UniProtKB/TrEMBL annotation:
Presence of keyword Iron-sulfur: yes
Residues in Rieske domain copies: 67-175
Record bears the keyword Metal-binding: yes
CDD domains found in the cross-reference section: RHO_alpha_C_MupW-like, Rieske_RO_Alpha_N
Cofactors that this protein relies on: Fe cation
A GO MF label: 2 iron, 2 sulfur cluster binding
PANTHER family in the record: CHOLINE MONOOXYGENASE, CHLOROPLASTIC (PTHR43756:SF5)
Keyword list, A-Z: 2Fe-2S, Iron, Iron-sulfur, Metal-binding, Oxidoreductase
Protein name, UniProt field: (2Fe-2S)-binding protein
Length: 458
């Protein structure tokens, strides 16, 4: 059995993520914890990405059974607000009622017409079919039927909209098409405990970009589950961002994470920089929440300065007290993956949600949603961003709403996906070989995926 943690310590002595993270103080227990158990090192067949029968079975065995992120609470702030969530041919209408959240299959009980258009959101006093004007109240109970005398066979008390499961956690709304599924908090396993110090309910969607990509949804998602590619796809980042020395943790069936240090050189860097140079060039995922750079005091690090500056700004502008948060909690890329398809970054310096789904019912196309979260202003006045949709040949960098650095990284990540998809079809080997540590979370994802596909998941 290979001890992967020991392997990292030997390969990068004094320069693992934990080494970098503790130079400015002790880590909280949730970040000090390391967990990366031994795994089966067998190859992953490309059929999981390109085989139509596998894709079809995913909808039955996975998408109809798992909790999946649909939207944020602020999308459903007031009674009457609705949000349509689509996954392949499945569609749900989520509404805010006076009593709380409800979710319904997006299909009329009369002739099956979609009740709300795919991808829509807004406000409505009821739920009305656009075909024959059947109407339901927000709680799903039947409101009215034109020419109702035409339906003597219909029991009005049993003609409510078909419901599906919906729950909210930490400002995020999840749905599940399986009526018998365990509660969301059970599904999230260690996540609620890990996020006790990261309350995202006081944040809102400041930018939402949706990009259509030329590859299976897993191809798109897995590009964000490792930094093995960073020196070759993002070479400009290696001087100021850790990559090959990232920490990868696997906690449970549905939850894993990676930890990437900002304001420190990668083991692959070819130049050495002073702390002031590191600060001046420091890459933060959303520069709009950081502001201008300062000067590094004697005996301090660029990371410490950036964290302190961010604490001060959060207190002064948003009345958020991060005095008890460690340096990595403030500025590092802390990324949790929740099976099957969502990434949550809770650190104030890089607060994001990323979501990956099949694009319609095409195994070779994916939808990538990038949410950038900002703290809510003191006065409570904010506007939830509308989604901006771009195609495969359009760039994140073309959007004024995107931070230039973050847009550049996302463009580099997504530009490679068509080549990967085409290479899978062209392969004579028919499978991928993953590294034992840097790509361990991808392997763990496939293990969980296999359990669902075989019907053996808990």
């Amino acid at each position: 059995m290979i001890d992967v943690q020991q392997l990292m310590r030997e390969r990068y002595p004094g320069n693992t993520w934990a080494d970098v993270a503790t130079r400015d103080g002790n880590l909280p227990p949730v970040l000090a914890e390391q967990s990366n158990p031994a795994q089966d090192l067998g190859d992953i067949p490309f059929a999981r990405y390109i085989d139509q029968s596998f894709f079809e079975r995913e909808f039955e065995q996975v998408w109809k059974r798992v909790w999946q992120f649909a939207c944020r609470d602020e999308h459903l702030a007031e009674p009457g607000d609705f949000f349509v969530y689509d996954i392949g041919r499945l569609s749900a209408v989520i509404v805010r009622t006076e009593a709380g959240l409800k979710a319904f299959y997006n299909s009329c009980l009369h002739r099956g017409t979609k009740l709300k258009p795919s991808g829509s959101c807004g406000w409505s006093s009821d739920i009305t079919c656009p075909f024959h004007n059947w109407q339901w109240n927000l709680d799903g109970s039947l409101k009215s039927i034109p020419c109702d005398f035409e339906f003597p066979q219909l029991d009005r008390t049993k003609a409510g909209l078909a419901e599906l499961r919906v729950e909210s956690w930490n400002g995020m709304v999840f749905v599940n098409f399986d009526a018998d599924a365990a509660p969301l908090e059970d599904y999230l396993e260690v996540l609620p405990e890990h996020f006790r110090n990261w309350d995202l309910r006081g944040w809102y969607v400041a930018t939402h970009v949706r990009k259509h990509l030329p590859g299976n949804w897993k191809v798109a998602m897995e590009a964000f589950m490792e930094a093995y590619h960073t020196p070759y796809v993002h070479p400009e980042m290696t001087n100021v961002v850790g990559d090959h020395n990232m920490q990868h943790d696997i906690f449970s069936r549905h939850v894993s994470r990676d930890l990437c240090a900002m304001g420190t050189a990668s083991p692959t860097a070819r130049v050495s920089m002073s702390e002031q140079e590191l600060l001046d060039m420091m890459l933060v995922g959303d520069g709009k929440v950081v502001g201008d750079r300062a000067t590094v005091p004697e005996g301090k690090t660029a990371r410490w300065v950036m964290a302190e500056q961010l604490r001060e700004r959060m207190k002064a502008e948003f009345d958020l007290d991060y005095s008890g948060h460690s340096v990595p909690e403030m500025i590092d890329s802390i990324k949790y993956h929740v099976f099957p398809n969502v990434m949550i970054y809770p650190a104030p310096g890089l607060c994001l949600v990323q979501q990956f789904r099949p694009d319609g019912h095409d195994r070779d196309r994916a939808i990538f949603d990038q949410y950038v979260l900002h703290p809510r202003p003191r006065d409570g006045n904010f506007e939830v961003a509308d989604v901006e949709v771009i195609g495969e040949d359009e760039e994140f960098a073309s959007l004024e709403s995107m931070d230039p650095f973050l847009a550049s990284v996302l463009d580099q990540d997504t530009d490679i996906m068509r080549a990967q998809r085409e290479g899978m079809y062209a392969s004579g080997k028919g499978a991928e070989t993953l590294s034992i540590y840097q790509e361990s979370r991808i392997r763990h994802f496939h293990r969980t995926l296999g359990e669902y596909m075989e019907g053996t998941s808990a």
